[in-house]
Structure formats: structure tokens, C-alpha cells
Amino acid sequence: MAKNVLILPGDGIGPEIVAQAKRVLTLVNDQFSLDLTFNEALVGGAAIDNDGVPLPEATLEAAKAADAILLGAVGGPKWDTNPDFQIRPEKGLLGIRSNLGLFGNLRPAILYPQLAHASTLKPEVVSGLDILIVRELTGGIYFGQPRGVREKECGIREGYNTYVYDENEIRRIGRVAFEAARARNKKLCSVDKANVLEVTVLWREIMEELAKDYPDVELSHMYVDNAAMQLVRAPKQFDVMVTGNMFGDILSDAAAMLTGSIGMLPSASLDVDGKGMYEPCHGSAPDIAGQGKANPLATILSAAMMLRYSLDAGEAADKIEAAVSQVLDQNLRTADIMSEGMQEVSTSEMGDAVVAAL
Amino acid sequence: MAKNVLILPGDGIGPEIVAQAKRVLTLVNDQFSLDLTFNEALVGGAAIDNDGVPLPEATLEAAKAADAILLGAVGGPKWDTNPDFQIRPEKGLLGIRSNLGLFGNLRPAILYPQLAHASTLKPEVVSGLDILIVRELTGGIYFGQPRGVREKECGIREGYNTYVYDENEIRRIGRVAFEAARARNKKLCSVDKANVLEVTVLWREIMEELAKDYPDVELSHMYVDNAAMQLVRAPKQFDVMVTGNMFGDILSDAAAMLTGSIGMLPSASLDVDGKGMYEPCHGSAPDIAGQGKANPLATILSAAMMLRYSLDAGEAADKIEAAVSQVLDQNLRTADIMSEGMQEVSTSEMGDAVVAAL
Ligand SMILES: CC(C)[C@H](C(=O)O)[C@@H](O)C(=O)O
Ligand SMILES: CC(C)[C@H](C(=O)O)[C@@H](O)C(=O)O
């Protein structure tokens, strides 16, 4: 049965890295007779330039129709100063997440042994690091209403946003996290600010409720400030972490950076049926766009996650991941993960190497 | 002119560490003829146990009447499960901050050269680290209304909080940060999430406006997720950072932990007139309370900040800071900062050493 993959190159280094991931996907499509077809559409700044909006109707329709989506990255200084807040690249990304109900964001922070030196942390603190952050992606303060800027008395402006979760939203992401923990080392840490924020008091309560259905998983709670500290102090204490949209944004980036090689980290954003959008954890890096310097491996590994979670092609995913490990063993490095004695390669040369390894 | 210092020991290790700081204050009070008088009051869990509320009226009155306040720490598992959200230790702390208008929170993250090895980060990444985080402390989502847990349709509960700042609140904390940057290395990084949250779009706008009054300070902006990453990747790029209450809570703890010795870090919370509350950055550490293991130096350094900022006794502050540096040079260490070849001392022995050095 043919399956359709929508490719959204986006902005900055997006097109370059996605191009390499597409080569890899095309190859395993043949090797494993996956019967994948590929479409491409505009999103983010590229869509603003072409259609005047960050998420054109045609892109949204294509995203809804697709079986899975591979995204490069969105955003750049060119569009950052747009006075209309709705016409920013990020709104394209947020629009897909929310319109497609991609509430379950999986962000692994894994230290590749070959890149252990790349971390700014001492080897003993991070060696073997393997954390999975489960971030709620379609609720919380990112989407809460009311929101905006209004005038108070005497013309004083005031900006406001609403941090809101209902128990169903919490339960839904909680289940994803408990299931993930069950499939890993059975430790789940739920991160909140229940000593200050009522919305996270409810969060904690629902996590406690859910824990009864997962007696094999050890649930703990941590305040977000402490979690940020513990990620720096002793990150290996964590197995799976679950948290809301905003805290997840912050903590997953901090966790990713612990590895020192954010150019290696993929992510998945899933709906209730396992359909998903896949993208690298890093951003659009406009400063190096078009120079062939970007690391395509996070996007290639995102393609692997896509094959595993949304396209029922776990074997192809395994093979891609093994190929990535192999090119690292061959000492090939893009600039972001370069170190002494290694061989520096360009974006497309890295793609060549993965294709060769496959 | 006599000045009154209110001492709030609080919970956990609070009483032990505050006792050592009080010895130090009493001594410099004599040495510099500062004419300080001391009062003590209950706050947090200790106040709940004694008065049924975390911030008794008498404590609040004493706080208002004092010229400066020295706080140990509040909180502990004993009170964490209190079903009434208003009767939690943290509410005592938040109540003082808001009732006294202590909006300007200064949190230095400094790496003591003697403790460089204590960091989990590589020496070259953190040596010489000296960041000041300026956190807004009486607004934002911590205090925003409306807030609570309510029932939506069909009895589904929903928790909600409001993230709100008006332009005056932003301007006020912005000025504190610009002034601090001017007195340091003239680099200010304002942290927001202006690509998603309207309230921080206003935040960024006001910071830009203020920048015109401080042409000698270089202002930059960073998204909070990136800031969390950059603190791990290259923390020495920062001089002063300014941000709202919630982001400041998270980032200041992460920054503090970069030093590996959070037991060394003081903080100040100031009102418009420079009156303030001073407290260590670390928490109440209930697990080691009463064992003489706690590090009193952050509290002693908080007392030094108090002398400098609220009691017009900069010389006494300098002397205390020099004494702390001296005891570190003498290789004395409490358990939290202990390392090979050093001499482990108890809380009161550390206090003895600082007193001797004075
Ligand atoms: C680009 C931005 C809107 C987005 C977010 O904040 O969710 C990004 O930081 C991410 O984490 O995917
Ligand atoms: C105890 C808690 C309410 C407090 C806060 O979140 O502000 C603490 O974490 C801090 O940073 O001073």
C-alpha cells in the first residue's frame, strides 16, 4: 500500500539537510520496497516569501493528506521583525502541530560514543547519556487563550498569555510518556512548578492517577528549576522526562546541548494514531545556510524515526541508524562536530557517506 | 542611625546557615560600628507549624519595618502535600516578595577559582565564569490573574495561570538590568520567547526602547530555549541576563549549577528604594537538615550583599567576601564542595573559620 511522505524543507539550512535525508529515504524505499511517494511543500519563511503566509492552505492540505511529514527547519532574521505576529515562520510550524493534533513530541538526547568529546560536560557526567524528553506540543501556554497585548488604564500596555491544560490533555501526553518509560528503563520524571502554578498542580495530580495503571514504572516529580539544575549536575539520573509545551521547549534544548552535538538529534511529533512530523532538534541556522556546512545527520535520523513510528518500516530505520553510526566510525565529521584527527566533510559529502554505508 | 535587620531562618537547613551568617554580621557590626539591630521571625513551614499560615501577620509587619531581611530557605516534604495550596511554605516567600515589592532579583553565578573542579563542565568552558542574572520577581505568571482549577463542560477539570506584564513592570526591571550591565561589562542579554508569546513581544519592545537610554550597553535578545542551550554550550558569552519571573527561575538555577557549587551563591531581591531581602540561591535541603553538613557560605555572602546594597556598608561587605575567599584558600570545605586533599568541616566550623578570618 503506497504511503505518502510530505517533505517541508523550510528555511535556512532546511533545504540542504532535507535534500540529504531524501536521498537516504529514496534509497531505502528501493531497498525495502516500501512503496513511498514524496511530495514537497512550502512552510515558514519560504512560504511567507511565496504566498504571504507561513502556512499556505495547500501545505496544510498536503500535510493532512500525508502519511508522515519530514521537516527541515523554519525561521530566520529576515522575517523576525515582521510587525504582524501572525506572519512569522514559527506560526507555520505551530499551525501544523496544532491543526494536525501532533501533541506528542519525543526528543531523545543521546550521546554518541564517537562524539563524547563534543560535550562541554565532563566525560564521566555524560558518557552513555540517553534521555527521552516527552513534551506536550499542542497545548499549554503556546496555544492558550486569551492572549495578546491590550491597554490598561491610562493607556499603559500589558501583554498576556494563558497557560492552560485540561485533564484530558494531561492524561493523553502522560500515557505517551508512561508507555515510553515502560519500553525503556521504567523511570519517568514529570516536571512541573506545582509549588507556584495551579495548572501544574493539576498536571501532577493526573500523573499520579496514571501511575496506578503503570505499576512497573517508577514515577517521580521535579520542579522545573530543579530539573534544569539536575540536567547540568547529573543528567544520567533521568530516563524519560515528561512536561508541558513551554518547559519542554526549554529542557529539551538544554538536554540536547548536554551532548554537545545537537546536529545529531532527531525528534518526532505524533498524533493519536501515530501519524507524525519529524524534524531535527536544531534550528534553521541562517548564518551557515547555503554553505554546505550543515550537519544532515539529525534530519537523516529524523527520517529513520519516521520510518519506525509512522511508516511501519522499523528495519529500514535500523539500517539508517547503523549507517549513521558507521560514518561516525569512519571519522567523517561536519564542521559542528569536527575535532582533531577527524576528516571534515560537507553536507552533501556526509549524505554521500550515509548513502554509501547503506 | 540604627538599622534593623530581620532574620528569617525558615525551614530545613535554614536555621543552621542563618546562625553562622548572624555570627558574621554581629562581628562586622562591632568592627565597623554599623549600629545594626537584629530581629527574628517565622516564615514558611516553621510558620505553618507555629501559626497555621506560611506568612503570619507579625512576620509581614516585621519585614515591612526592617531595613533589610536575611532569609535562610523555605520548604520541605512535610508541607508539600498540604491540600490547601495557600498553606505551603513557598507562599510565605512569595508573600514577602510581593507585599514588599521586591521586584528586582539579582542572582550572580560566579565560579570561585578554588572550586573550579566542582563544576560538571569542562574547566575551559567555565573558568572565570561571572554572570549576573536579573530576574523580575513580583510579576509574570507567578502572580498573574486569573488562575486556578475550574470545571469545563462535562466536569472536565482544567488548570490555568496567566502570564502577564505591563510596560511599567518591564521598564522597571529593565532599568535595573541596564544599570547593572553598565557597572559591569556593558553587555545585556534579554531573554524572552517573542516568537511565540505576545507578553514577551512587549517585553522585547520595551527593552529596545530602554536601550536608547543606555547607548554604552550592548543589548541582545535570545529565545529562552536557546538561552538554556547557550548556558550549557558557552556560558562565558554572557555578562548580564534579564528575564521574567518564570524563565528567571529556571535559567538562574541552571546558571548557578554551572559553577558546581550552588552552596556558594547568594542572591538579592530589591524594591524601588534598594531595600531588600537576601538569601542563598540553594534551597532548604531537608535531607541534610540538622546534621551540620550544610554550607553556610552562600548565606554569609548574602549577608555581604545585604550590607552593600541595603545597609550602606560596602567596606564590611568587601571584608566578608575576602574572608570567604580566604577560608577557601585555607582548603576548608563543607561536604557539598569537598574534594580530594581538602579538609572537610561542618557548618559551624566553616562559620568559625570565616569569623577567624575577619
Ligand atoms: C520555533 C519554535 C516556535 C519552536 C518551539 O518553541 O516549539 C522550537 O523552538 C521548537 O522547540 O521546536
Ligand atoms: C521556592 C520557590 C517558590 C522559589 C521560586 O520559584 O521563585 C524558588 O525556586 C526561587 O527561585 O527562589
Can you describe what's shown?
The structure is a homodimer of 358-residue chains. By secondary structure, chain A is an alpha/beta fold. Chain A has two domains: 1-112 and 262-358, Isopropylmalate Dehydrogenase; 130-258, Isopropylmalate Dehydrogenase (3-Layer(aba) Sandwich). Chain A has 13 helices and 14 strands. Chain A has helices at 14-31, 45-51, 57-65, 77-80, 89-99, 123-126, 167-182, 198-211, 224-233, 245-258, 297-309, 314-329, 347-357, and strands at residues 3-10, 36-40, 68-73, 104-110, 130-136, 148-151, 157-166, 187-192, 218-223, 240-243, 266-270, 276-280, 332-333, 343-344. Chain A has a ten-stranded mixed sheet with strand order 2-1-3-12-11-4-5-10-8-9, with helices on both faces. In chain A, helix 1 (14-31) links the parallel strand 1 (3-10) and strand 2. The longest helix of chain A is centred in the first third of the chain and has 18 residues, at 14-31. The model of chain A has no long low-confidence stretch (mean pLDDT 96). Chains A and B meet through strand 7, helix 8, helix 9 and helix 10 of A and strand 7, helix 8, helix 9 and helix 10 of B. The structure holds 3-isopropylmalic acid (IPM) (2 copies). One 3-isopropylmalic acid (IPM) sits between chains A (75, 90, 93-94, 249) and B (195-196, 225).
Task: Kindly summarize this structure in a few lines.
The first copy, chain A, folds into 2 domains: 1-112 and 262-358, 3-Layer(aba) Sandwich (Isopropylmalate Dehydrogenase); 130-258, Isopropylmalate Dehydrogenase, CATH 3.40.718.
CATH architecture label of the largest domain in chain A = 3-Layer(aba) Sandwich
Give the assembly state of these chains. Answer: homodimer
Please state the CA-atom Rg of chain A, rounded to the nearest Å: 20 Å
Summarize model confidence as the mean pLDDT of chain A. 96
As residue ranges, the low-confidence spans of chain A are none
The proportion of residues forming helix of chain A, as a percent range, comes to 40-55%
